[in-house]
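quick q for whoever's on today - can somebody do inverse folding on this one?? i tried earlier but teh output was garbage lol. tokens:
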């Protein structure tokens, strides 16, 4: 991934390429829930933070 971004400096990281699925799926589901009005940004942020911390603690 670093070589691609070095060769293409006017682009940005895509979440599913930068995060593990255990985190990205929570982000994606949360964004959908916000759009549908079934969750709040604060709730989604807390869920994503928890997913990231859990993933980070368990990675080897």
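ok took a stab at it. sequence:
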């Amino acid at each position: 991934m670093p070589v691609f971004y070095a060769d293409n400096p006017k682009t940005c990281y895509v979440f599913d390429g930068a995060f593990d699925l255990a985190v990205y799926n929570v982000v994606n589901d949360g964004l959908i829930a916000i759009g549908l009005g079934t969750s709040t940004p604060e709730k989604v942020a807390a869920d994503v933070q928890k997913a990231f911390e859990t993933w980070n603690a368990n990675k080897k």
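fwiw Residues 33 and 39 are 5 Å apart (CA to CA). also Residues 16-58 form one domain. so keep that in mind when u check it
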